[in-house]
Amino acid sequence: MKLKKPQGHRQRLREKFLKGGLSGFLDYEIVELLLTLGTPRRDCKDQAKKAIREFKTLGGVLEASSHDLQKIRGIGPHNIFGIRFVQEVSRRFLRERMMKKAYCRSSREVFDYLFHALRDLKKENFKVLFLDAKNQILEEKTLFEGTVDSSAVYPREIIKDALRYDASSLIFVHNHPSGDPEPSPCDKEITRDLVFAARVMQLKVLDHIIIGNNCYFSFADHGLIDEYEFLFQQSG
Q: Per the count of CB atoms within 10 A, which of 5, 57, 63, 65 is most buried?
């Protein structure tokens, strides 16, 4: 017995999208279309509904890891292609948008850009964004991997790269695999030391952002970067 191919239903969804974009789409219908990109001859409606129930929202599905998606019965390595593809396209778009415009002190924009890259990592990764005098992003680089402490983060290496890229300012970003972005005393100590080292070389630290489970902590937003700047001035 041959299974009926769900071409009519899928075609109607595609035509609906082409006519009006995502307006009027239910969340599960969007997930369904994404799942069918990898399995075009398979009905994915039930799997899409299960995914929405499991991850609560469309955003939750799009942010889910491949491992978690495949826990849903009927979702395998082939039909998560569409979801992963959209994730990567979004990340590239955000990167290009950030690399072409001023940072404007937006911690949220940095979080949106780097969240997908850092969220599933089991170890802490320490990234640096190097910016020019107009706050245009020149380069993004992962400098350290593992537990972020004073023995792992070397201000000298960061300053050396900043001079190589002819950067004027810096943004630091690292993840907390625990999911809690609250800074530890060590995080605060490292950030203070980096602000001091940067100021000695006439560089400015704009922010240090810690990424957790769909949330983040910004040292700049909480006034800590300004506090460390003040301490540096007092020490002189």
A: 63
